[in-house]
Amino acid sequence: MRIVGLTGGIASGKSTVSNLFKASGIPVVDADVVARNVLKKGSGGWKRVVAAFGEEILLPSREVDRPKLGQLVFSSDSKRQLLNKLMAPYISTGMFWEIIKQWAKGAKVIVVDIPLLFEVKMDKWTRPIVVVWVSQETQLKRLMERDGLSEEDARNRVMAQMSLDLKRSKADVVIDNNGSLDDLKQQFNNVLSEIRRPLTWNELLRSRQGAFSVLGSVILGVFVCKQLNIGS
Ligand SMILES: CC(C)(COP(=O)(O)OP(=O)(O)OC[C@H]1O[C@@H](n2cnc3c(N)ncnc32)[C@H](O)[C@@H]1O)[C@@H](O)C(=O)NCCC(=O)NCCS
Ligand SMILES: Nc1ncnc2c1ncn2[C@@H]1O[C@H](COP(=O)(O)OP(=O)(O)OP(=O)(O)O)[C@@H](O)[C@H]1O
């Protein structure tokens, strides 16, 4: 199985690119969705986060007040690191199971959309790595527009992540998303052809079909050896 890493910065356009992958029939495992499940009321992650940050981060429904928690963690490095530490094991386990589900369905190519791919060092598990890059000016503008944030809040969120220029330098493939949606789609089509190229031997062995072929060959090998022993 080929596990393509999709990353970028906040509001750089990862979800927009993810949607193009989904529309082309490529399954996407989204770390933000997994992280949202980790904070669902009553879950293990929710309990740990509420114990650490207090009941004041809860809404009257006892769900986490996400904008409030966001305000806290994006304006304090230590609080953000604490939240990351509490949630990381749940997010990695959740991602692992989502990838296994796709493997069991026989997916040959999947995309994992992980905003913090490099920060959490998951880049070593994914190839190729696609970085959706925008200039800081475009990033701030789109973030303020999409989430209705002040410039200060938007800057805090951007500064909480590794710089997009550094991420770009670590990419195998860069999508420059400063232009229009049509420009983005054109670049996406090139990326799609790149990731749909035939699997390498290693990727084939990691796919369900590859694993079954190896298992089948081993069983056949054992059977043939037994037959030969019996005959001798
Ligand atoms: C702080 C929370 C509650 C704010 O929720 P909110 O709904 O406002 O934002 P959402 O979850 O949609 O995230 C939006 C973007 O913020 C950025 N972001 C989220 N968490 C972090 C973080 N810990 N550090 C840096 N950037 C982050 C990502 O680019 C993400 O795509 C939420 O982001 C969260 O639970 N973060 C911790 C989990 C995490 O690390 N998620 C990233 C998955 S790798
Ligand atoms: N090429 C583009 N032209 C204009 N607007 C765009 C373009 N690409 C994305 N956008 C808009 O920019 C905003 C951010 O895009 P998107 O939500 O895909 O980013 P993201 O990287 O997934 O963000 P996050 O890290 O917060 O999850 C959205 O409002 C989206 O509609």
UniProtKB/TrEMBL annotation:
<keyword id="KW-0547">Nucleotide-binding</keyword>
<dbReference type="Pfam" id="PF01121">
    <property type="entry name" value="CoaE"/>
</dbReference>
<dbReference type="InterPro" id="IPR001977">
    <property type="entry name" value="Depp_CoAkinase"/>
</dbReference>
<dbReference type="InterPro" id="IPR027417">
    <property type="entry name" value="P-loop_NTPase"/>
</dbReference>
<comment type="function">
    <text>Catalyzes the phosphorylation of the 3'-hydroxyl group of dephosphocoenzyme A to form coenzyme A.</text>
</comment>
<dbReference type="GO" id="GO:0005524">
    <property type="term" value="F:ATP binding"/>
</dbReference>
<keyword id="KW-0067">ATP-binding</keyword>
<protein>
    <recommendedName>
        <fullName>Dephospho-CoA kinase</fullName>
        <ecNumber>2.7.1.24</ecNumber>
    </recommendedName>
</protein>
<comment type="pathway">
    <text>Cofactor biosynthesis; coenzyme A biosynthesis; CoA from (R)-pantothenate: step 5/5.</text>
</comment>
<dbReference type="GO" id="GO:0015937">
    <property type="term" value="P:coenzyme A biosynthetic process"/>
</dbReference>
<dbReference type="GO" id="GO:0005737">
    <property type="term" value="C:cytoplasm"/>
</dbReference>
<dbReference type="GO" id="GO:0004140">
    <property type="term" value="F:dephospho-CoA kinase activity"/>
</dbReference>
<comment type="similarity">
    <text>Belongs to the CoaE family.</text>
</comment>
